[in-house]
């Protein structure tokens, strides 16, 4: 598998891993989070189209490993001076796990720091393909109740737990749980407590909290899809701080947006 379907490349990012990074967004995601800010990435690993400002545009292009290496090596100096590197995002990276593994392997040969973002929603076999070549995993934890997770986002939270547990056994990998703070879905008291219990039982000392935003809303119009979160208010700073304090009282450092 020497080609991957990529729907975006973002250079000079200071989110999603340490230092200055290039983010490569791989297309395809089996989940259906109502708050998704990259709805163009969802569903199958195949190009799609949207209509933006009256023009039809293709989303997703097949890119070879060599093409992507040329792209990311333009910023190698920034990775080295800032402690950055390359992050594979999505969509869900595990949808293209063979390609991701081959690409990450090449990055490691070049000594570049590698990170992936994942929801851990497939059998552990897929993540095992990547782990020899990954330095850091930004692992999304969303809804902990099994039936609620299945109903709202279409993921079996048992599978998510298994992937998370497996990653914790890989001592060479830094695992950072990331929790999207989504009103009505992830921020209710029960879910926050379940998250805290899950993390403290595994002696996790740090999480990143990602407050809900509306940045992806116009993409739903381009795609002709309904955006169910359009009337949902973003959280106030006080509400965010209240949630942060709950994690910190349990001994878990909570970093807002991964930037504090
Ligand atoms: S896992 Fe990420 S890309 Fe997939 S639907 Fe949820 S928010 Fe969107």
TrEMBL record:
It comes from the Bacteria. Keywords: 4Fe-4S, Iron, Iron-sulfur, Metal-binding, Oxidoreductase, S-adenosyl-L-methionine. InterPro entries: Aldolase_TIM, Organic_radical-activating, Organic_radical_activase, Radical_activat_CS, rSAM, rSAM_sf. It holds the Pfam family Radical_SAM. Residues 15-253 form the Radical SAM core domain. Gene3D superfamilies: Aldolase class I. Its cofactor is [4Fe-4S] cluster. Belongs to the organic radical-activating enzymes family. This is Glycyl-radical enzyme activating protein. It comes from Enterococcus hulanensis. The lineage of its organism: Bacteria, Bacillati, Bacillota, Bacilli, Lactobacillales.
């Amino acid at each position: 598998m020497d080609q991957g379907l990529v729907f975006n490349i973002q250079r000079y990012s200071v989110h999603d891993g340490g230092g200055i990074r290039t983010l490569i967004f791989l297309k395809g995601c089996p989940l259906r989070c109502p708050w998704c800010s990259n709805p163009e990435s969802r569903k199958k690993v195949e190009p799609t189209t949207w209509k933006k400002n009256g023009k039809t545009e293709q989303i997703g292009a097949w890119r070879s490993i060599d093409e992507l290496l040329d792209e990311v090596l333009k910023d190698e100096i920034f990775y080295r001076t800032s402690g950055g590197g390359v992050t594979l995002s999505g969509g869900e990276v595990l949808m293209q796990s063979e390609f991701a593994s081959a690409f990450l392997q090449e990055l490691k040969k070049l000594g570049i720091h590698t990170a992936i973002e994942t929801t851990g929603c497939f059998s552990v076999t897929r993540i095992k393909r990547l782990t020899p070549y990954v330095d850091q995993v930004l692992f999304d934890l969303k809804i902990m109740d099994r039936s609620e997770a299945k109903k709202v986002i279409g993921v079996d939270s048992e599978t998510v737990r298994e992937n998370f547990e497996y990653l914790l056994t890989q001592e060479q990998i830094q695992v950072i749980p990331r929790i999207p703070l989504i009103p009505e879905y992830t921020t209710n008291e029960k879910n926050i407590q379940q998250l805290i219990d899950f993390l403290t039982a595994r002696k996790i000392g740090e999480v990143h909290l990602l407050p809900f935003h509306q940045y992806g809303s116009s993409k739903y119009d381009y795609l002709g899809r309904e955006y169910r979160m359009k009337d949902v208010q973003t959280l106030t700073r006080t509400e965010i701080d209240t949630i942060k304090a709950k994690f910190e009282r349990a001994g878990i450092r909570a970093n807002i947006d991964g930037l504090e």
